[in-house]
Amino acid sequence: MSALDQTTRTAPSSAEDRTPVRPGRPAALRSPKILDLHLDRLAVVYIRQSDPQQVLNHRESRERQYALADHVVALGWPRERVLVIDEDQGLSGRSADGRGGFQRLLAEVTVEHVGLILGIGMSRIARNNRDWHNLLEMCVVFGTVLADEDGVYDPQDSNDRLLLGLKGTISEFELVTMRNRLERGWSHKARRGELFHHVPLGYVKLSPDRVALDPDEQVRDVIRLVFDKYDEIGSAWGVFHYLVRNNIRLGIRPFHGPNRSNLEWRRPTMVSVRQILVHPMYAGAYAFGRRPHERVRTDAGKRTRPGKWVPMERWKVLKHDCLPAYITWERYLANQERMREHGWGPGSKGNPRNGPALLAGIIVCGECGRRLKTDYRSNEKAYYRCARHLYVGGEQTCFGFRAGPVDALVAEQVLRALEPAALELSCRALEDARRERARLDRHWRQRLERARYEAEYAERRHRAVDPENRLVAPSLERRWEEALQAERQVRDDYDRFLRE
Ligand SMILES: [Zn+2]
User: Fold this and answer.
1) DSSP bridge partners of 306
2) pTM above 0.70, yes or no
3) Ligand 1 centroid to 434 CA: how many Å?
4) Mean pLDDT of 76-94
5) Which of the residues are catalytic?
């Protein structure tokens, strides 16, 4: 059957006088609202899924969206005149900000390139009334029609425009309802202490609402080491340096990516060390709302983002003794107190600073109570100086003094105070060093054991495969070589540690 036959057979008679159908174009689904001037322009199919998870999981919906291109062909456009805009995969339709595809769509409309815009339900195009009406306005001015799976709408027609306006409103309302339902669900779960987005390192998520200690012994040992070292050194920065100096890595299970939830050994960062020290989960407590989201205004309306960390008394949920712990709650509180004292805030004890002056960073002005600044005109000539007048904009009432005599006095007092306990202290220091050494040795042996296991595993896999299988055997052999080399490297490092 030729296309022309089909036209005469199926095209609605009322439409025929409005839309002279061109030969060669199927008109089975042709709507009277689609005119030749539309057919001469592009048809745009707009495709979007709200978040990357949907792009992966909702294949059905995604494929349905791509099938829209066929729908456009049925409406009368040749396939090569169908433009699919799918740059906005994984972006929410809440606002046009950052949605390059939506901006491109608007731009194409305003240069009169677009005859028809098609999307699954109008909700996919915009979930924000302002963006939606903006698009409608443009479509009126430049004579573009819109379509979804239910029909074709001409925004120049007042009835269609009313319908499109309603669809936009409903779509925005749907988004608000969905978000509210989601947030209520989350807060219910959180109140029961069962909402876990991510767990900190040293823990694994068994199911969406159950958490356990990491099954790997070495991972747990490193976490305990961080806490013990903090007790000893007293600063997160110090712990971080200790870990880096001794080449101790943190066992991390990534949340995303191809290696998701598989153990990886990574160099520690200051952020990860701090996180271990401040996270209440290590003390067995469940907390929610440590960093509440805040609504911010942007050009395109409102959106939420993670706000500031809030103090413990403002956390929404805090339940004690409900999770497996590394330290006690008392120890956790003591650590927080110690961290606060090391800050620069009022009432804190301050942090000793580097430099030849003994009291840099901890000496306080006797006149006004501010922490004194340390100036060095040379290494021998250090000065402690009060800078109050610079901050409050007043007359200089407190002054500084030379560091030398004060440092000497303080050093003498400290040594005198320590004298009676000197022998005991040096014995204890020796004992500490021995224990420390044993601990590091244990860490090295764990690493060596792991490397040995990896090498043996690679060897077994290599032996299990038929050597004639040329596709697989070489790569397995290479992996075995690499594992052996890694083991040799760890063994060398361990030897070096033993000789030190
Ligand atoms: Zn002062």
Assistant:
1) 293
2) no
3) 45
4) 77
5) 50
